[in-house]
Amino acid sequence: MRILFVNGPNLKLLGRRETGIYGRTSLAEIKKRVLQRARTLRVLVDFRQSNHEGDLVDLIGAAPGRYSAIVINPAAYTHTSVALRDAIAAVGLPTVEIHLSNIHARENFRRRSLTAPVCAGQICGFGPLSYLLGLEAAVSLAKSTGKRP
Amino acid sequence: MRILFVNGPNLKLLGRRETGIYGRTSLAEIKKRVLQRARTLRVLVDFRQSNHEGDLVDLIGAAPGRYSAIVINPAAYTHTSVALRDAIAAVGLPTVEIHLSNIHARENFRRRSLTAPVCAGQICGFGPLSYLLGLEAAVSLAKSTGKRP
Amino acid sequence: MRILFVNGPNLKLLGRRETGIYGRTSLAEIKKRVLQRARTLRVLVDFRQSNHEGDLVDLIGAAPGRYSAIVINPAAYTHTSVALRDAIAAVGLPTVEIHLSNIHARENFRRRSLTAPVCAGQICGFGPLSYLLGLEAAVSLAKSTGKRP
Amino acid sequence: MRILFVNGPNLKLLGRRETGIYGRTSLAEIKKRVLQRARTLRVLVDFRQSNHEGDLVDLIGAAPGRYSAIVINPAAYTHTSVALRDAIAAVGLPTVEIHLSNIHARENFRRRSLTAPVCAGQICGFGPLSYLLGLEAAVSLAKSTGKRP
Amino acid sequence: MRILFVNGPNLKLLGRRETGIYGRTSLAEIKKRVLQRARTLRVLVDFRQSNHEGDLVDLIGAAPGRYSAIVINPAAYTHTSVALRDAIAAVGLPTVEIHLSNIHARENFRRRSLTAPVCAGQICGFGPLSYLLGLEAAVSLAKSTGKRP
Amino acid sequence: MRILFVNGPNLKLLGRRETGIYGRTSLAEIKKRVLQRARTLRVLVDFRQSNHEGDLVDLIGAAPGRYSAIVINPAAYTHTSVALRDAIAAVGLPTVEIHLSNIHARENFRRRSLTAPVCAGQICGFGPLSYLLGLEAAVSLAKSTGKRP
Amino acid sequence: MRILFVNGPNLKLLGRRETGIYGRTSLAEIKKRVLQRARTLRVLVDFRQSNHEGDLVDLIGAAPGRYSAIVINPAAYTHTSVALRDAIAAVGLPTVEIHLSNIHARENFRRRSLTAPVCAGQICGFGPLSYLLGLEAAVSLAKSTGKRP
Amino acid sequence: MRILFVNGPNLKLLGRRETGIYGRTSLAEIKKRVLQRARTLRVLVDFRQSNHEGDLVDLIGAAPGRYSAIVINPAAYTHTSVALRDAIAAVGLPTVEIHLSNIHARENFRRRSLTAPVCAGQICGFGPLSYLLGLEAAVSLAKSTGKRP
Amino acid sequence: MRILFVNGPNLKLLGRRETGIYGRTSLAEIKKRVLQRARTLRVLVDFRQSNHEGDLVDLIGAAPGRYSAIVINPAAYTHTSVALRDAIAAVGLPTVEIHLSNIHARENFRRRSLTAPVCAGQICGFGPLSYLLGLEAAVSLAKSTGKRP
Amino acid sequence: MRILFVNGPNLKLLGRRETGIYGRTSLAEIKKRVLQRARTLRVLVDFRQSNHEGDLVDLIGAAPGRYSAIVINPAAYTHTSVALRDAIAAVGLPTVEIHLSNIHARENFRRRSLTAPVCAGQICGFGPLSYLLGLEAAVSLAKSTGKRP
Amino acid sequence: MRILFVNGPNLKLLGRRETGIYGRTSLAEIKKRVLQRARTLRVLVDFRQSNHEGDLVDLIGAAPGRYSAIVINPAAYTHTSVALRDAIAAVGLPTVEIHLSNIHARENFRRRSLTAPVCAGQICGFGPLSYLLGLEAAVSLAKSTGKRP
Amino acid sequence: MRILFVNGPNLKLLGRRETGIYGRTSLAEIKKRVLQRARTLRVLVDFRQSNHEGDLVDLIGAAPGRYSAIVINPAAYTHTSVALRDAIAAVGLPTVEIHLSNIHARENFRRRSLTAPVCAGQICGFGPLSYLLGLEAAVSLAKSTGKRP
């Protein structure tokens, strides 16, 4: 079983900037923890990041056949990208939306997620732990071979 | 370490009604799985349900000193109860909001959570698995002794 | 056949207060008329009132198996209770929403009913007669054993 | 005592089209049931239908002196016709608004009724039974010779 | 010079109904006063009323070549008729919108006029005097042969 | 195969008025071009216009059995007529909504079409060509005997 | 009989600026025409202008006992001044709101008048003629000694 | 003279939690100060608190005949409870709404009070002093035996 | 200790106009009662009124160094003046907002106070008593030398 | 004459995914039909697709001088891309917006098109036929060498 | 060349109050810097401040003929004064709106500027430097003798 | 000192298209003027343009360490890009937002800037001069080594 992790814009700045909101852990460190946990769960993980909306749409569009499930942190595109939403809905793979920060406790425009309604579920607010919980959820969804558990 | 699970209105009907949305697992069955996982994590869990907003506020108000963290499925009160929000904010314990269904994929009024902004984070859409992920998050939050990881 | 009548908050003050809006008939008097009409229709009626949202949710949650249909005057909770809405939707019994006053001719916030969309229909504006029409509708719905006639 | 039944646009298509929403009973069949019930109640009924907003306004404007009460299913004009609202308000006869379907459970724009605030009350969601309940309410209102019971 | 007076729905009930809002003068009486004043101003007046939106659109569509200006009391259609608005804009005759009551002091939905933006101006709140002021304005507009004075 | 063309209010003024928005072609000229193209496509066309909402509802209500598809330019009623919407939905014939002007580039209230959601599709902005494209679409829809191609 | 004319901010620039919207007539010229018409009607007129909201409130507050009616062109304060509204409501003199331009055909924020609901009526769009019609209306209102004709 | 003090949800946590917003004084200490001041004013006071909306509605519904006036701090229910509003309106006793914090300076949803429109007035922002000012106002209202001073 | 009382537009008309809303006591009479109570509390009071927003801003801007606290009834400017809000925020003196009427029970636009969020608190609905309660609150705030008690 | 076809994000998944909404025809198959029809009309067509907003903006920005008209299916970017809108407006070529599905019959956020107001017109809801109608419209627009026919 | 600087309410408190938002420089100091820079640019500057909306309107109304351009910091009136907007639009001088703070980063109601749409442009967020940049822009606009560069 | 200039989508079309809004100066010409002024100020400037949101995010993300400040004209992305906003906030360099046109005087959706709240300030409406003023502001901000002057 292979899981695709998709990371949206600005996440490569993680750990260096706005640490009050996003914490001090870098994306590389998070990736390391995800791969470690993946080994425990005996699944493979591909871990990608891009600042380009089109790249993220490309990645998801090419996922069917290669991956059993997707874990996505769409970052800023959560709130603006109908294209990402359409991509997730189109490929129909079980998808878990994750966020480092609690998007419900921030600016008003961050409370609306365009992508969440086409994902299986959403996990937010737990920092790097959101990634590990997202992995666990994705593996469980992939095993039950359906979008809803 | 002791974790309080708080379940809101109508959750005792779980497994018998609207199984298309909420699945076929009863609350008793979910409780069993949560206690099982709690044993693995070597924590204690109290598991409560009430249809009364006031009971839920009482439970949370009495939690400090007894519990290290709270996992709450406020159900319908998610969207209408400022009292629950104020209770969670007042006691200041690390709190995880969970939902069985993906509230972002349902009626419009279910997308607004009054309680989420004062919780550490939110997990929704994974059925009974939401409870287990919530437990894992709560234990992690309690260990780092702070509301944000 | 047994029909459950559920009355929401403040209805026990009926007949003594704000008679300009709600009329001079007490809830006891309305109950008497409902029971009288029930005898004519050869059905049994249980007639309950509570100021507690949780009590009303309890009542409805316990209705399946005991009652063939529900007639509910949710009063103030019409406009604020997602919990009542979820309870009605969960038990799936044919339910008729009634109001003494014409809620469409009052304050703006009374025009939105959270419960009406999950009921079979709504009757409002006819004073105590709303209860008798509600009984007739509920009996008819129960006979056709479906939520929609 | 004579009661005017006013039926708005598209109602003559009843029973043949969109039977999932409006049921399989034709307007002619409904009329038959209304007349039958009217005989039981010893009142006379005139039963009209038009697709023209102006015709409906004409009918209502000419009602005073001829009818003791009005039962109206304004259909689509419920949501768009200030002219119908003004006509009902102007003639001041006790008026009952009825709908076959539960307008609160349909598209958002169907939840606003321009006519309901100037009627005595509203009955919706019970199919042809809405007409019979409406007749009963109208007769009761006409007897108490006032708009509010 | 010939001026067309167009009266919208329910205005033939004037003087008999809702006299608190619209006064006790009948439309016939108002017509008499308008014709009298027209003679003083040495202009001809045609005075029409219909409850049918389509009739009013027909009347206005046929006005060019016959009339120098239009005075219109669109009544309820003020707030709902894009068709009337389009008719007035299409024929391009100087048009004065009048109302008996002060529409700014009534229900919220009466404050929006769909027709006013395509008229030269609006006069409201002066009862039958609104008609005489409207005539005076229309004659003045027609003389200056332009829509704006 | 027979196609019904329905034209809404003010369209008989076409070519003489507001030529900046609607162009200089009269409705008669457009009809001529439509009939010409219909002959090429070997279908029959009935071409109607009315300023009366009720007439348009009548026309559509009587269409089943006589026509295979409808092309409608609802003009002003696009934005205000729930009755037209209900008529189109009720008869269930494949229906194409057309507009001469680009309604998305005009006043805000013209961007909302009440009828489009119950039509197969919408064509707007191409002047008389909108009619010819609408004919082509309607014929294609009728041939595939389904509302969606 | 004495009538107070109150002119709001920027009106002393009239005739020199934005002549496309407000015309080429100066306020002095308008005053001359108003006084002339006043002589014909055998009433006295005081004609004031100020750019200061407070001055306008002072003027109106001091009007009872000195004037029989007020004609006011509140200009920009129409849309922003609750103080003017309260002053007009407080003194209770018959008041006519006038505007040179058709405020319904301009920017959206000019369509809301805070003062119109407490005036007897509103006249707008007729240039300097608005002042003469306003005078005529005020005299008529003053004669019938009531705010509504 | 006897005054009823009603305290809403979470107020028993006062003084221990969120002292930045609500101050360090406990509800017991506030009660002491209120009783002290009541003795000075020679009135009796009953001081209640509940987290249950239904309890608060019960308390108010039972107040007529026992109390001359009510002082209520509805806390979170201020913003969500139509039931409390209806209870206050129903019993018709002079009622003063109080708040410790300045609700106008907090989250947006706290600025809307559902209960204030049916109270005589509102006092907010003065910490425990709000209770003493509320007592003074209630006594004054009760003496003038009317809801408005 | 010296307290500044600031009264906004139209308040000098008090007692003579709209006595149904504002009562029959004049501003002079209120001033007398305030000075009387001030003597009891052993503080000095300056009592000002102006219809000019700029005057009120001047008064507040000059207050630091002269006064220990401000009591302000901004009247109509409550709802429209960002300038007053900025003045109050700028000088940083403890400020109490008062209103004679219950602004929450009147027109919708009166429920929004631009000034309340920068005041310590608000007192409304108690007629002249609002002034005395405001004085008491201001003295208490000034003594604790901080904006929040 | 050369026409540019621009296809937005996710369209290369066409025919394999969400066939209920978008049909079973692939983009390659649609391209084939468009080229075929282009040959009949004796025009050249370039047919492009990209998931990248920037690519689409590049394509349009480079179009002047190379193409006579544009047919664009902006897909998800229809609703979110001001950049595409600005590009279309900037190059000033006659542009036709097309959609496979009827965007007016889907989610609310799909009803707003940011690009339509700067296109000549819009065609939606006819599946692959939308492309052929779009081609026909574009050729006609290019021939009349103006944006509006 | 002579430039008019207009400063709105509360700006004379600058440097003493809310230094966190507005900085520690007084208006006198800013004036000094502006005059200094003006000498370098060889232009004359008049520098005015008033708390009175009417004064600001007077100043602008009297500017034509005396000044070549205006630099205005409308402060609080930015968000509430249609009168200032009308004055700027009426005199037609090139006008630059400036703000010390970044109004886009403050309360929501400060993001709407009523005056900006009739100015040539807006500069905000740079503290006293905003004044110098405004001067530079105004001189440049005045030289090109047009409102837009 | 080195300043980064970032130019958003469509700006390379400048000077050739929509010259009524954006003027006749090309981006190359603007760059020349900026470099010229930079030499005078003795700072270095890098001048970039891209139509790709992701490229702009990349540029900003890589800026820390290389540049002392950023001047950005986000063009269309001003109104839609949360990703750009997050990038600017993340890198924390002093940033100046500039626009050629006065965005407050154009379509409604252009008045909301997602990026302005995280910039130091905004300059708009002065054509190419906006770039020079932006440079001056950026240099000043960089010198004071803080985001706010």
Explain this structure.
The structure is a homododecamer of 149-residue chains. Helix content of chain A is 36%, strand content 17%. Chain A is α/β, with parallel strands linked by helices and 149 residues long. Chain A has a single domain, classed as Rossmann fold, CATH 3.40.50. Chain A has a 5-stranded parallel beta sheet, with helices on both faces. In chain A, α2 (27-41) runs parallel beside α5 (129-143) and α3 runs parallel beside α4 (82-91). Chain A is globular, with a radius of gyration of 14 Å. The two termini of chain A are 17 Å apart. Chains I and K meet through α3 and α4 of I and α3 of K.
Entry summary:
With 149 residues, chain A is an alpha/beta fold. Chain A is built from 5 helices and 5 strands.
Notable features of this structure?
149 residues, homododecamer, alpha/beta, Rossmann fold, 5-stranded parallel sheet
The H/E string of chain A reads EHHEHEHEEH
CATH superfamily of chain A: Dehydroquinase, class II
Helix run count of chain A: 5
Radius of gyration of chain A: 14 Å
Euclidean distance between termini CA atoms of chain A? 17 Å
Overall spatial form of chain A: globular
Low-confidence stretches of chain A: none
Number of individual domains of chain A = 1
Mean pLDDT of chain A: 94
Task: Specify which chain pair forms the largest interface.
Answer: A-B, 29 and 29 residues
The CATH topology label of chain A is: Rossmann fold
Beta-strand fraction estimate of chain A: 15-25%
What is the CATH architecture annotation of chain A?
3-Layer(aba) Sandwich
Classify the helix fraction of chain A into a percent range.
Answer: 25-40%
SSE-based structural type of chain A: alpha/beta
Strand order of the largest sheet of chain A: 2-1-3-4-5
Quaternary state of this entry equals homododecamer
Identify the CATH class of chain A: Alpha Beta
